[in-house]
């Protein structure tokens, strides 16, 4: 059984319904079998979850739960201490190549339309696991205060934003009350640039493609949508895009695969926009 401190740590990192269910969905948990959250404190909810895991109610173990949370927060000391003696994670892919680090910033505030971000993250993680070339970290219910710490901790090659975008190109994060906080594309791009160069920025949200140019100072390539992007279309694009990266393709080639994956299910791909230093697709 995990120490009591584990419940406090999980409660601090995953304090709300969205972040809890994103984490548990990534492990394949059946939501219907989870303890009822109700008015429980976050640490009490996690204690109940861990008790059910220990009883064998799910296909994953407590070690799996800790490992998944540590992948989301690789710099968190408390998570590392929950599993003393565990070997350090391997950070090399095939033939000793460095793993491609992907940081997912995911937000669906309560005052916006609900998005199936858990499914989007699940598909990205599955592609990463199958390819053996990528390491995915996620910040769910992402707040503006999460952005710089996540960039400095994960040191990603790719930043993937999933959530809502406004028609002026601003991206929507959450505040402490899970209400929308808008961040102008220029300000987000400046944060990315300050933290270090990126291979690619994926803005998997409505209306983000119109402001794609501002991210080229921070990243070699940018992908977004110039129009409203249906939830299912966004999920399919993510699946195809990361299939490409996991296959060792360039960001430009991965974008083509993401677009193709959307098109196979009948979605209009004309809204997708890709820019890199060679030009636009």
Question: What distinguishing features does this structure have?
Answer:
281 residues; 10 helices; globular; CHAT_dom; EAD1; CHAT domain-containing protein
Structure description:
There is one protein chain. By secondary structure, this protein is of the alpha/beta class. It has two domains: about 5-80; about 100-280, Rossmann fold. Helices cover about 40% and strands about 15% of the residues. It has helices at about 5-15, 15-25, 40-55, 60-70, 75-80, 115-130, 145-155, 185-195, 230-245, 250-265; strands spanning about 100-105, 135-140, 160, 165, 170-175, 180-185, 200-205, 220-225, 270-275, 280. The strands form two sheets. The chain has a seven-stranded mixed sheet, sandwiched between helices. Helix 9 (about 230-245) packs across helix 10 (about 250-265). The N and C termini lie far apart (about 50 Å). The relative contact order is 0.10. This is CHAT domain-containing protein. Pfam families: CHAT, EAD1. It comes from Nonomuraea africana.
Topology of helices and strands:
Elements: H1 4-13, H2 17-26, H3 42-54, H4 62-72, H5 77-81, E1 100-106, H6 117-131, E2 134-139, H7 144-154, E3 158-162, E4 164-165, E5 171-174, E6 180-183, H8 185-195, E7 200-204, E8 221-225, H9 231-246, H10 251-264, E9 272-276, E10 279-280
Parallel strand pairs: 1-2, 1-3, 3-7, 7-8
Antiparallel strand pairs: 4-5, 5-6, 8-9, 9-10
Helix pairs in contact: 1-3, 2-6, 6-9, 9-10
């Amino acid at each position: 059984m995990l120490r009591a401190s584990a419940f406090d740590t999980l409660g601090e990192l995953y304090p709300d319904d969205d972040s809890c269910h994103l984490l548990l969905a990534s492990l394949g948990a059946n939501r219907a079998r989870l303890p009822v959250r109700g008015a429980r404190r976050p640490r009490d909810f996690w204690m109940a979850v861990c008790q059910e895991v220990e009883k064998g109610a799910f296909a994953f173990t407590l070690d799996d739960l800790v490992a998944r949370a540590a992948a989301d927060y690789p710099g968190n000391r408390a998570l590392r201490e929950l599993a003393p003696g565990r070997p350090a994670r391997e950070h090399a892919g095939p033939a000793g190549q460095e793993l491609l680090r992907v940081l997912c910033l995911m937000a669906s505030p309560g005052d916006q339309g609900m998005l199936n971000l858990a499914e989007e993250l699940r598909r990205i993680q599955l592609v990463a696991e199958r390819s053996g070339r990528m390491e995915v970290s996620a910040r769910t219910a992402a707040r503006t205060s999460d952005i710089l710490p996540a960039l400095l901790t994960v040191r990603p090659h790719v930043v993937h934003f999933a959530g809502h975008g406004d028609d002026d190109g601003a991206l929507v994060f959450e505040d402490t009350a899970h209400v929308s906080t808008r961040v102008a594309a220029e300000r987000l791009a400046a944060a990315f640039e300050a933290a270090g160069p990126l291979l690619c920025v994926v803005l998997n949200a409505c209306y983000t493609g119109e402001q794609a140019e501002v991210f080229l100072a921070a990243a070699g390539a940018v992908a977004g949508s110039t129009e409203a992007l249906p939830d299912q279309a966004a999920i399919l694009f993510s699946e195809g895009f990361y299939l490409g990266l996991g296959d060792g393709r360039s960001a430009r080639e991965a974008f083509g695969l993401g677009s193709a994956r959307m098109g196979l299910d009948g979605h209009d791909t004309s809204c997708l926009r890709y820019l890199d230093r060679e030009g636009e697709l």
